[in-house]
Design a protein that fits this description.
Keywords: Glycosidase, Hydrolase. It comes from Helopsaltes ochotensis (Middendorff's grasshopper-warbler). GO terms for molecular function: alpha-L-arabinofuranosidase activity; xylan 1,4-beta-xylosidase activity. The chain is mainly alpha-helical. It folds into 2 domains: 65 residues, no CATH class; 123 residues, Glycoside hydrolase family 3 C-terminal domain (Rossmann fold, 3-Layer(aba) Sandwich). It contains 9 helices and 3 strands; from the N terminus they run ααααααβαβαβα. A 3-stranded parallel sheet has the order 2-1-3.
Length: 228
């Protein structure tokens, strides 16, 4: 609110936030955050003690339900590790969620889905800065991934037994340096071309927005060359 000039100080922001119903501030890394001014606001009478209790109650109730204050032996979640998180059941559920969340804008002549049984005799070209770069596949606030569980488009298609050729065209999402000749060579010999484009945290995150929705750098040119 302070950045948008709705308020003029951290104290005023704390008062407005708490009185509006906000009970949690995300201020990682800030020593002098907004809610540190709540005691002063309380002393000045800008926030009542009952309001403060009303805000804190659901917050701590949720933390208690999660077992944060229980001894480790009483909390079943404290014993979880990657063998549970990355169990076949959980990975299959993640796969199901990914498949069901795809947004297909156009499917000319039923090109999709690509079926493994139809790919054995075909030559696939996988191109673009997102085709085989695990680092750029995760958005803002993503957990730190385990490399062995990351499947890039290139890796996934190679597991299907298809004849896959790859070139990034440009090595990172900003795509400032683009190798057209290499892309044309790879795409020209393919039966099916998959172009993997996007933005990623290198281009936009929270507090780092873009002024337009255009593809970064030479990505549009890369796409046009692949289509041509």
């Amino acid at each position: 609110m302070l950045g948008h000039h709705y308020t003029h100080s951290f104290l005023e922001t704390a008062v407005a936030s708490v009185n509006a119903g906000c009970n949690l501030e995300l201020s990682y890394g800030l020593r002098n955050n907004v809610f540190m001014h709540i005691p002063k606001a309380l002393a000045m009478g800008n926030i009542t003690l009952q309001t403060l209790r009303d805000r804190v109650q659901p917050l701590f109730y949720t933390r208690m339900r999660l077992g944060e204050f229980d001894p480790p032996a009483m909390n079943p979640y404290s014993s979880l590790d990657l063998s549970v998180v990355q169990s076949p059941e959980h990975r299959n559920l993640s796969l199901e969620a990914a498949v069901k969340s795809f947004v297909l804008l156009k499917n000319v002549q039923g090109t999709l889905p690509l079926r493994a049984r139809d790919l054995s005799g075909q030559h696939l070209a996988v191109v673009g800065p997102f085709a085989d770069n695990p680092r750029v596949l995760f958005g803002d606030y993503a957990p730190v991934p385990e490399p062995q569980y990351i499947y890039t488009p290139r890796r996934g298609l190679e597991m299907l037994g298809a004849n896959v050729t790859f070139t990034a065209g440009c090595s990172e999402p900003r795509c400032q340096r683009y190798s057209r000749a290499e892309l044309v060579r790879v795409v020209g010999a393919a039966d099916v071309v998959l172009v993997c484009l996007g933005t990623g945290v290198d281009v936009e995150t929270e507090a780092k927005d873009r002024s337009d929705l255009s593809l970064p750098g030479h990505q549009l040119e890369l796409l046009q060359d692949a289509v041509q």
